[in-house]
Amino acid sequence: MGILWTIVLGFVIGVIAKFVHPGKENMGLIMTILLGVAGSFMAGIVGQFIGLYNAGEGAGLIGSVIAAIILLVIYGRIKGKSSL
Q1: How far is CA 61 from the centre of its chain?
Q2: Sequence spans of domains, the chain
């Protein structure tokens, strides 16, 4: 059940990040889920580093979306450079 919950939350976080971030990203369902999961993971690591979360605590929704947007910007820049 934990893996299914991770996939659902990853999808929700990825969709919110894609909605907030301007521009069009040609990302499918799997990439959107991976974006959300990676954003949540990154927010958890950074949050632990600066003292917002304890070890084993999950990141909050807002922090996860912000981290996913940052990853989306990085993805866009890498994708934009490779097409030149």
Answers
A1: 10
A2: 2-82
Instruction: Please state the rounded mean pLDDT for residues 67-84.
Output: 80
**Considering the chain, what percentage of its residues have pLDDT values greater than 70?**
92
Total-model pTM = 0.81
| Residues in contact with 36: Cβ distance below 8 Å, sequence separation at least 6, in sequence order | 9, 10, 11, 12, 13, 14, 15, 17, 64, 68
Query: What value does the mean pLDDT take over residues 61-80?
Result: 87
The answer to whether the CB of 40 falls within 8 A of the CB of 65 is no
SS3 42: helix
Neighbours of 51 (CB within 10 A): 7
Asked if residue 32 lies in contact with residue 49, where contact means CB atoms within 8 angstroms, the answer is no
